[in-house]
TrEMBL record:
Protein name in the entry: Actin-related protein 2/3 complex subunit 3
Subunit comment: Component of the Arp2/3 complex.
Cellular compartments annotated: Cytoplasm, Cytoskeleton
SUPFAM superfamilies: Arp2/3 complex 21 kDa subunit ARPC3
Organism: Calocera viscosa (strain TUFC12733)
Amino acid sequence: MPAYHSAFNEEPDVRTIGNTAILPVKTRIRGPAPLVADPNEPDIIDETLDLFRANSLFRNFEIKGSADRLLIILILYISDCLSKIQASRTPPNQNEAGKMLNTYAVDNFPLPGDAGFPLNAHYQAPPSRIDADQLRSYLVQVRQELSARLVERLYADGTGKPSKWWMCFTKRRFMNRSLST
């Protein structure tokens, strides 16, 4: 059974930096990301949250386009977020988890082409320093929005604890990789 791929691979005229797509997002956070034209349509963040649990069961993933490369980065980021929450001595409440993940979203992280990036064989480095800065700014904004939406889903049941149906995926590693070093 193949892994689930991004529906945004079929989008025409998608801007890329290196070979990573810069896709529109629905966001409340200021930044360089283009905004989705129709706020009722799903964006890459919604797609990532929907596909995370299914795709995290796969060790192999055939990249079919630039949107898949962004999907991989975001799935690995969710996995690291869940591990951060799991590593807390006591389960954080929703506000604490939001603060923890927002801080993690803006922490320094390797980009494609950097020495610490785990999937450099599948990604092209940004062609210039300006492009690398644009990619970093975009990914910070997307990571912040993804963190906020992830926390909403983790604590949707109202118990004040993260959902066990999400936290059980801390043991699974998508493509047997992690973004954190």
